[in-house]
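User: Batch of two.

Assistant: Item 1 of 2:
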Amino acid sequence: MNSVRGLLPASVISIQNSCFIYPACQKCLSRLILDSRRFNCLKCGCTGEAKDASYRYRLSLKVADTSDLFDITVFGSCLDPFFGVTAKNLQRCIQDFNQLSGETDTDASPGVLVQAVETCFIGKRFIFGV
């Protein structure tokens, strides 16, 4: 694996998916498997109650610099300022909204949230650490 790090100034072309947060293991940051009562990390074996699951941002973007296109995924709390809340608090808001609207897909982000994220990022230029 190449360990060279650098900065990439690029413009966001599109948002690759509408799932901006995921339940994350507090030990290894891998995606947790959730059921109605418990969570389980397949990578490190961590388990606990579903209500205590931690959440983390994951924003997958298609970006372009002056000559190339790149798929970039931004993880973690660096996205807190853009969303205005932590990933766990956003998850609570999405869950409450989905319950009120009758949405059955618990991972679904409300359309208005997807629209807001697109407005915030698409067409904007950022410097990505890669």
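Item 2 of 2:
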Amino acid sequence: IANNIGRIARIFGCVTTFKAYLDISSQPSKSTALRSELQLSGVSCSQVDMFAFAVDHPPPATVVLISGDRDYA
């Protein structure tokens, strides 16, 4: 999945940062395996602030946000 997301994101330009934010509290037994799989795909799993990204990367810059959280819509 991470490779497919990266391929689609490259349509918008060079991917300089690929971060994943996930709630692993509901399935702690799978968290280590999931984190390892993401890191092997080149995805960093540490939390960062999107506002800080916007400050550090002046326009034109693109953020691709995929979320199941309705609050982001």
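DSSP finds three helices and no strands in the chain.
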